[in-house]
Structures are given as C-alpha cells and as structure tokens.
Amino acid sequence: MESSYRPEEAREVLDQWRLQRRSIGFVPTMGALHAGHLSLIERAKGENDKVVVSIFVNPLQFNDQSDFDNYPSTLEQDRTLLEDAAVDLLFAPTASVMHPMPMNFKVAVGPMAEAYEGYYRPGHFDGVATVVAKLLLIVGASRVYFGEKDIQQCSVVRRMVEEFHFPNRIEVVSTYREEDGLAFSSRNVRLTASSRRVAPLMYQNLQKAAKSIREGQDPSFVINSAIEEVATVAKEANVDFQFDYVDLVDETFGPVAQFSEGLRIVAAWTLDGVRLIDNLSV
Ligand code: PAF
Predict the structure, then answer these.
(1) Does pLDDT of 255 surpass 90?
(2) Per the omega criterion (within 30 degrees of 0), is the bond before 102 cis?
C-alpha cells in the first residue's frame, strides 16, 4: 500500500492510475477503522481497479470540542487493517495541509442541514461538505463510498455532488451491524459494558416499530413505545439514556405523519454520554 500525506503526493500516484485508465474507488474516513469501514472497502474493491482510503479527523465537522478531543485516533492499527484489506493508497493529511489558515472558503449547506443531525450539531454538515468537496477534488475518484448509517450525510453529499456537478458517483453501502443489530461505529468503543448491552435495543425496537407502521399503526404511537422500552431497560441497567430525535422522515428529511413508500426512521440517542445514530427503512 502506498501512503501519502499531501495532496500533491497523492496526485502523483492517482495521475499515473488515471493515465493507465484504472478506475478508482474512494472511501473517505476519519480513521478508528472497524468492520463497517471494511465493508465499504470490500465493496469498493469489487467495483474498481484501485482503492484509496483517506484518514482525516476533520475538525470542521465537530461542533463540540470535547467530542473532537475524544475522537479515537489509531493510525498505526488502521494502516495494518488497510494493508490486510489490500487497499492501494492511504491518504492521511494533517489539519494544516487540509485546511490551510486563514480559511477563506467553506461550503454552506442549505435547509437540508437544519433538521435532525444539523439541528443538534450546528455547522456539522458545512464542515462535512467542505472536507468532502476538498477530498473529492484531490482524489478524483470514479466512485465514492459512504455508509448508510450516516443517512443525512449521504443525502447532503449526494445533493452537493449534483449541484456542483462533481463528476463522481456516490455509492451508499448498507449499514454493517453486530449480530445483535448494533450498527458498527467508531464511538462504540466508548460504551461501558452496561450501555453496550442497552445499545442494540433501539434498532431492535425500531425494527418492530417499522413493521407496525407498515401494518397501518400510528407512527408516533409505535415510535414512542419503542423509545419508552429503551428508556425502561436503560433505567433498570443504571444507564443514563437521553434521546435527541427518533422520527419518521422522507428523503428530504421532513417529518411525515403517515406511511408511504421510501420512508425511514432516523434516530439519535445518548447512553452514558456516548451519542449514537442509526436509521432504517420502513
Ligand atoms: O463519515 C465520516 O467518517 C466523515 O463524516 C467523512 C465523510 C469522512 C468526512 O469527514
């Protein structure tokens, strides 16, 4: 695996591949790699001649400094995983390379960034869109892979790519889950033993809620019951449970009251201070 730390180093390798007419798959990450990332890489390997992975913990997308400070950083372990996964190029820039100061330009995302994750994490999607735009320009990939767990991020990136006429194809890969249904996330390592036991209940209960909604039951009633069940178990386990939102949304991330095709339930909740997100189709 080749490694590059600056855009111009990465471009030297990438330009060669393009001259050789190799297709390039790109998986942008913030490191702390887990099986979910490896599933994106596996898909990219199957669909492209060469695969590039970036590791960059993007300060612009953290609205909470302590969240940024506590974000796991495991570069050497990540490098081994990427080598084992036969990735062709690792791009791992520093913050000063990625965002030279003073910063004069940022991507400003419109109303689609105001609800849900955008509401609870002000500025988050502007930060994501800014770094993803830069990464897409540096890597120039044929296909770029994102995990469906961050469904609102996928919508923001898709829309940005359409509006700015980026030539890349965005591929969304289904959420990779533990056996009990908990979505893989870099934050899972911060769950205590008791909060880890409570964590999968949200997805398990929302799956039942989705089934009831399809069968015609009232969405807000079944969603509220699902949340209450998680709250009860968390209380019994002495785990602090808070939720930011659990809602039925359409593809514009507007809330909807009634079942129709293509809806999803989106959820964000906190267990003993660790914030988790998930979503599932109804
Ligand atoms: O999903 C992530 O890991 C990040 O938001 C991304 C897309 C790498 C941008 O920093």
Answers:
(1) no
(2) yes
> In testing the pocket of ligand 1, which one of 41, 56, 60, 128 has its CB within 8 Å of the most ligand atoms?
128
Cα dihedral 95, 99, 101, 102 sign: negative
Q: Is the pTM of this model over 0.85?
A: yes
- Give the mean pLDDT of 171-185: 98
Asked if 40 and 54 count as a contact pair (C-beta separation under 8 A), the reply is no
37 is an active site residue: yes
Q: Is any ligand 1 atom within 6 A of the Cβ of residue 223?
A: no
Q: Domain containing 51: what range?
A: 2-173
Residues 158 and 76 in one domain: yes
User: What is the edge-to-edge ordering of all strands in the sheet holding 274-281?
Assistant: 241-249, 264-271, 274-281
Q: Is 178 a member of any domain?
A: no
Mean pLDDT of 208-218: 96
